[in-house]
Amino acid sequence: MASITGKVVLITGGSRGIGAATARLAAQAGFRVCISYHSAQGAAEGVVDAIRRSGGQALAVSCDVADESDIVALFEAVDREFGRLDALVNNAGVLELQSRVEHMQAARLQRIFATNVTGSFICAREAIKRMSTRHGGQGGVIVNLSSIASRLGAPAEYVDYAASKAAIDTLTIGLAKEVAAEGIRVNAVRPGVIDTEIHASGGEPGRVDRVKDSVPMLRGGQPEEVAQAVMWLLSAQSSYVAGAIIDVTGGR
Question: pTM of the prediction?
Answer without folding.
Answer: 0.95
